[in-house]
What we know:
Structural class: mainly alpha
Oligomer: single chain
Helix content: over 70%
Distance between the termini: 28 Å
Radius of gyration: 20 Å
Number of domains: 1
Largest sheet: none
Amino acid sequence: xxxxxxxxxxxxxxxxxxxxxxxxxxxxxxxxxxxxxxxxxxxxxxxxxxxxxxxxxxxxxxxxxxxxxxxxxxxxxxxxxxxxxxxxxxxxxxxxxxxxxxxxxxxxxxxxxxxxxxxxxxxxxxxxxxxxxxxxxxxxxxxxxxxxxxxxxxxxxxxxxxxxxxxxxxxxxxxxxxxxxxxxxxxxxxxxxxxxxxxxxxxxxxxxxxxxxxxxxxxxxxxxxxxxxxxxxxxxxxxxxxxxxxxxxxxxxxxxxxxxxxxxxxxxxxxxxxxxxxxxxxxxxxxxxxxxxxxxxxxxxxxxxxxxxxxxxxxxxxxxx
Length: 321
């Protein structure tokens, strides 16, 4: 595959992943009375169950994975799946949809910066001077959305709860800064392995972790809702399987395809597609267009990421070369 073809197809896969990942921001808004832990464990229990027949179909390639591969899949499942969505769902329930979504929207540049620090010899280095304007634009965008959301709060709103939501969103950023870097490491070190197989393996690794978490939550009383499926059982089960199939398995598959085709610093910036999809879904659920401040904040976020996309990593000369 030529570099240009890899860039085009990788960007397309990243777009598809973002559109599907945006769905995960919808569940906490559609099921506001469900605890975040139940949403996280439910989503990934569904993902694991969906992965079982897929693993059987792909059993020959699954059998090629080593014990070390399964340990890595379990680590990725714990941090990038369960903990990330636990933080994210709780953040949305505390602070609403737009602000956590915008904080998550910093991931493209946060991951690019992290990758610039650790992966420069493998992928090339981005010039820090070209990244600085992106950081300023994104920070300004988040500030504008935060101001708009603060203005929309009722006079008696709990500001402490809103602040906790923002802090939880930062926890989600930490989890999903670690995840794509480690996931890209495995994919780049195993170029002959199928991204589909690796997506399925992560689902299998997630299943026992999610099942244990679900059972533990049930034993502790369900977080205030009737177990096993809460007050709106059919809605909950259907939504978990829809998100488990599209956002978890298919979204992970598309992201793995993008990660094999693109440098990590570039692929990371394309997570902006998830942010834009999530914001669109949130405002559709609200039944109104975003206000001027929010719209300008979103525009600044996009401009920041687009600015960063203009930069291409430069290879680092080998020592003595």
